[in-house]
Amino acid sequence: MGKTVTATHCPYCSLQCGMELVASPAGIQVRGRDFPVNNGGLCKKGWTAADLLRGDRLTTPLVRWQRDGPLRPASFPAAIDAAATRIRATQQKYGRNAVGVFGGGGLTNEKCYLLGKFARVALRTKNIDYNGRFCMSSAAAAAQRAFGVDRGLPFPLADIAETGLVVLVGSNVAETMPPAMQWLARQRAAGGELIVIDPRRTATAEGADLHLQPVPGTDLALAAGLLHLLVADGGVDDDFVAARTTGFGEVRRLAAAWWPERVERVSGVAAGRLREAARRLREAPTAMILTARGAEQHSHGTDTASGWINLALARGLPGRAYSGYGTLTGQGNGQGGREHGQKSDQLPGYRRLADPAHRAHMAAVWGIEPGDLPEPGPSAYELLGALGSDVQTLLVAGSNPVVSAPRAARVEAGLRALNSLIVCDVVLSETAALADVVFPVTQWAEESGTMTNLEGRVLLRRRATAPPPRVRTDLTVLSTLAGRLGVARGFPDDPREVFDELRAASAGGVADYSGITWERIEAEDGVFWPCPAPDHPGTPRMFADDFPTPDGRARFQPVEPAFPAEQPDDAYPLWLTTGRLPGQYQSGAQTRRISRLCGRVPRVEVHPSLAAALALAHGETARIVSRRGSAEFAVSVSDAIRADTVFVPFHWGGTARANSLTDPALDPTSGMPGFKACAVRLEKPEKPEKYEEGTG
Question: Which residue, 189, 236, 527, 667, has fewest beta-carbon neighbours within 10 Å?
């Protein structure tokens, strides 16, 4: 047998870098591929992506036949029977809404779509949401209310290379999306400038022309201060504002109160540096403002994103060539995952579950009555908070909330209190280990399906190898389970058939895929939505002529700086912020099982002055304590962090679980928890231990 080469995409972040998989009797090798996002480059996660295909992964269904018994191998039919029996028993005893569904932003478009349909048609429950609520929801809500649409980047990633100035807020692209750095490198080589706003001097900030290092959670004050200076110094594009926007008067009035010295008192950023940032933004011939989780994962994250959108609108950036506002989507299908029905208030195509016309459209596609659709349900944090009470059985697909959810210890307790937990996963994650039924599902290279990357480019991941004999696709699990629950039709497990139904469901919606076919994706190596007809070219660049709002204008939002729900005090004197490491991804359930990625232990980044005050040495154990719990990390002494702030990664569970600490206070618009800022104290245990690299 010779080699076969399959053109596909990386399974990790929202770049969805192009790659080739070379399959031979010796295994599968990853090779770079010339794709517009990455031009053949991959990060370390991408190069090692095939390691888990034959590594530490699930290969057979597991069932816990007795409440306190172990998980035991079972056949697929037996596992389906066990899951269906538990679901029926729960709904018969407690009602339809006692069964919940929790999805993930890494699922293909077809899985997202069928999971939402399964919840609303097969289960008829309102209780469905997904982990993207903890990732993109604030930026999505801000974009929807300003532009009438949420697409992470309304322009191709490659446009970054052509802009005069990039303002990067709360993102460490160099370590979280390394292949994207080529576009920033080209931009800088052509004479462009880079401003980075981050409480840490990250690898990205190291290369910036200007680095603003604010107190965590004060990004909106910076945006207001920059707008204040644009107004004062004649930097507002008055023609654009008059012709293409509404609501600037109130926003300008509010910005008047945020002069640089006031912003300095709030954010810790010197007034002179703020003025320098405003000057660069005012003088740049073209500019892009890009936000990410550092600015958005707060209890006021939607307003913060709106503040940066206001700044972009005031400069007249959206819709201009090589300019605009965008947000750097995180998860692999974070864009498609929020478009097609996993969110509790949303139907496919970005239709709203509360809108009668939208309900009627979806009911017609699904062959049911509009009244049979459930009402909007609670957001992710509230859904997880109802485990063991209002929700008695939970189906989890593509998520690991034991590690990734806010107030994770409480979520873990809720999962343990359920009557039944059913999990579809590729590995025995911390969440799957608690389950009563576990379905081993195919990995990215063992199935075909579409993804939508951060640019809104719909692309095709292709099957390159067969899964183990007892492993099924998520689509097969949902299709078979729906049949066992009495819904024999409407749940195909052929991804192409599901995608064609998704196209019909999205037709006429904001995220219109109806003109996109698998054949077009293959021929064009991706198609940008909206694409409402087969002969439509797709939309790589949005807003050139108008915005998809009722009057065609973008809408300024009158937002005022707010601060994290929790402030440091004598008992908890430090700020905690969290983030990613280059070699790990999300909850780490997969990447922690890849030996080539496991060279770093979970560390807390501590400024030298703080380390000296607490007599903490590099490599020693430190305990971080918040009002919700504690966690332990190895100390990394670094002057890259503010002296009043500590940083930890969120990829680990157990004693190094960052989300045992974080603040669950919710954004009132998006339901986003305050991951990026809470009050903590740092302690030196009585018997500190030394961590060794490679043990994490």
Answer: 189
